[in-house]
Specification:
Blueprint lengths: L2 H5 L3 H68 L2 H8 L3 H14 L5 E6 L4 E7 L5 E3 L11 H8 L3 E10 L9 E13 L5 E12 H11 L2 E5 L6 E3 L2 H5 L2 H4 L9 E5 L2 E12 L2 E10 L1 H49 L16 H94 L4 H8 L1 H33 L7 E3 L1 H11 L1 H4 L3 E6 L6 E3 L1 H18 L5 E9 L4 E8 L6 H6 L17 H11 L3 E7 L3 E9 L14
Parallel strand pairs: 13-15
Antiparallel strand pairs: 1-2, 1-6, 2-3, 4-5, 5-6, 7-8, 7-11, 9-10, 10-11, 12-14, 15-16, 16-18, 17-18
Helix pairs in contact: 2-9, 3-4, 10-11, 10-12, 12-13, 13-15, 15-17
Length: about 650
């Protein structure tokens, strides 16, 4: 069967397509609609629960802040030297005046009481509705702490107390006033830690304050203690319920329902603590609004679903009659196309949007093919250029190393020239002395009678004195030559190309020894080495960094009398720091920002490659460390090389300029 016959739609296929569209669109839509309504209702309850839980957390945080502020303020009052003195001297009037001034500045508490050492109230201050500090003189000397409260205060630095109370009245026309009071007690200590009094600071939440709190959060709030009958609430009817009504719901984590004046409410209970006092915080929200919203949402859902079902039926019919044939034409064209060809082109025989889509596909296919071909060519060019750059970079690094090696060899050659020179000059005298001594031996064997005369002629006494000096001088020169060669071998450490734990100080000393010719009689080196652990590193590469930095420091000092300070120390984060500071000419900000750039140099033409610090940068980065530099014109430059003790890490390190 040909592709055209195989893909040509039949009338039965159109019917199946319509049924398929209706079944697999209307049925899921009906299921989604019902499920969405159920989930929406659950979501409303969940949102309500989340909101009440968030409000409970917010109230808990605010109570915690109130607690912290009250504790802080009571400690401030208790630590007031003047108050301690007045209480010790029983000068209550002066203490009261000082407390009034302090209490007037406080924005937290509503009541401030101070007791003497016998736990009798001496100062009773409170703030009225306008925030003015008032005195309750009638309460002073009439109130005394009970023994249980006093023992609790003396056992701690501070004691937190919470009480829910209701003021009863004999006047039937006056409503009962309930309130929640949070207070903090703190001891006032005098000389020697002796208790001279007690301070109590409290904040009172009456029904009006709790009502404002509830209005701001748009919830109903109520407080009660499990062992007391009083309930303080924003809603009057909530205060009429008994505590036993709510206690069974304490173990429930979610919401529970309660009808208040025929209105459904969702309530949540949370246990809270103020010090050692436990109380219950209740939050509630009316469900009248959510019920109305849910009703409107259901109506909107069913309306939308009905409209969608109608549109789906129409769409199924039009899709089978209008869209199906052009789609199969495109599929037939695609099936006839040989996909093994490099470029895929679909014949465009349809002038509808599908024909435009086929043309766009052909254009996209052609441009993609051309772009891929151009991309392959570019990749080949980039690979070739990258190989050339790598070769050039390797040659430049080799050139920089050879230049550095040339400078090093010149310094070593200069150092070797001196001991070798005077060893060579001593050889003439040693040859002359040896010839004279051999002649004297021959005279002693053949003509003993002429020995005295030959001794005087050869000046044997001078030879006896000078010969040990010449030998010692040659030994010293040979020793110096050996030390220079040994220092060069230790510096290069060619046998240590792998990671190895080494002593940083040894590398610095070897580098300084090789730079002796450049430093001596001109630059003074001041070393301040700390206690360092051995560092896991590439020794020869690290010595090259020290050589580059120290050589630059020496070259920056243009006159005699300059100094190079080398300081080492161990940092707290398992790293070591090597600081190299010179008293040279320094660098300006522009130069400082470019010193790690390859080929950047401030030396004259032919005097430097500009790769020394760039290579040092790469070595320090390879070790997973940092290199920092600070400089000021006329005051010198300081390099700080920071290396991890455990060696290079996998994480990316940064090199900073400060």
């Amino acid at each position: 069967m040909s592709p055209a016959k195989r893909l040509r739609p039949r009338k039965s296929l159109r019917t199946i397509l319509i049924l398929w569209l209706l079944i697999f669109s209307i049925v899921p839509l009906a299921f989604i609609t019902g499920y969405s309504l159920v989930r929406f209702e659950q979501g409303i309850d969940q949102e309500l629960s989340t909101r009440l839980l968030g409000n409970a957390r917010e109230i808990g945080v605010q109570l915690s802040e109130i607690q912290s502020n009250l504790i802080f303020e009571t400690h401030q009052i208790a630590s007031d030297k003047a108050l301690t003195y007045y209480l010790t001297a029983n000068n209550i009037a002066q203490a009261r005046e000082g407390l009034k001034r302090w209490f007037n500045r406080s924005t937290i508490s509503h009541r401030l009481w101070v007791f003497d050492r016998d736990a009798r109230l001496q100062v009773a201050l409170y703030k009225d509705e306008r925030g003015q500090v008032q005195r309750r003189e009638k309460l002073e000397t009439m109130i005394e702490m009970n023994e249980t409260l006093l023992k609790s205060i003396n056992a701690k630095d501070e004691m937190l107390y919470m009480n829910i109370a209701s003021d009863t009245t004999d006047n039937p026309g006056k409503p009962r006033e309930s309130r929640v009071e949070f207070s903090v007690y703190t001891k006032i200590l005098g000389t020697g830690g002796k208790v001279v009094g007690y301070v109590e600071e409290a904040i009172t939440l009456d029904e009006y304050a709790i009502q404002n709190w509830g209005n701001r959060l748009n919830v109903e709030i109520f407080f009660f203690q499990p062992d007391k009958p009083t309930i303080v609430a924003t809603h009057d009817d909530l205060a009429l319920y008994k505590v036993d009504t709510f206690l069974p719901h304490l173990k429930e984590d979610g919401l529970f329902e309660l009808n208040i004046r025929s209105n459904p409410y969702s309530l949540m209970l949370r246990e809270q603590k103020w010090g050692d006092t436990e109380f219950i915080l209740g939050l509630g929200a009316s469900k009248s609004a959510t019920t109305a919203i849910l009703k409107n949402v259901k109506f909107a859902f069913f309306t939308v679903v009905s409209a969608i079902v109608f549109l789906l039926i129409c769409l199924s019919v039009f899709a089978s009659r209008i869209l199906l044939n052009p789609i199969y034409e495109v599929l037939q064209a695609i099936e006839k196309t040989d996909f093994d060809q490099a470029l895929l082109q679909i014949p465009t025989t349809n002038e509808t949007e599908l024909g435009l889509l086929a043309e766009s596909f052909n254009d996209l296919s052609r441009r993609t093919f051309e772009s891929q071909k151009a991309l392959r060519d570019k990749i080949q060019e980039l690979e070739k250029a990258n190989n050339e750059i790598r070769d050039t970079q390797a040659k430049l690094v080799h050139t920089a190393k050879m230049a550095s090696l040339g400078q090093l060899v010149a310094g070593v050659a200069h150092e070797l020239n001196n001991p070798i020179g005077f060893i060579y000059s001593n050889m003439t005298h040693l040859r002359d002395y040896s010839q004279k001594l051999v002649h004297l031996i021959e005279v002693a064997e053949k003509h003993p009678e002429k020995l005295s005369q030959e001794k005087a002629k050869a000046d044997l006494n001078y030879i006896e004195k000078d010969l040990p000096k010449l030998i010692s001088s040659c030994e010293d020169g040979a020793r110096r030559t050996r030390d220079i060669v040994l220092g060069l071998r230790n510096f290069s450490r060619l046998d240590e190309a792998q990671l190895k734990k080494v002593d940083i100080h040894e590398g610095l000393e070897n580098t300084l020894q090789l730079l002796t010719g450049e430093l001596k009689n001109r630059v003074k080196v001041v070393k301040k080495f700390g206690q360092l652990p051995k560092v896991n590193c590439y020794p020869s590469q690290l010595n090259q960094v020290f050589m580059n930095v120290l050589s630059n420091a020496a070259q920056a000092i243009e006159s005699q009398g300059g100094e190079i300070h080398i300081t080492t120390r161990k940092l707290a984060d398992e790293r070591v720091e090597v600081s190299i500071r010179d008293t040279g000419k320094g660098m300006n900000k522009t130069t400082l920002e470019k010193i790690f750039d390859p080929f950047f140099t401030t030396k004259g033409l032919g005097s430097g490659t500009g790769l020394g610090l760039s290579i040092s940068y790469g070595v320090v980065q390879k070790h997973g460390g940092d290199i920092l530099v600070a400089s000021e014109v006329g005051k010198g430059t300081e390099f700080k090389i920071i290396l991890p003790v455990d060696g290079p890490a996998e994480s990316k390190k940064t090199v900073a300029v400060i």
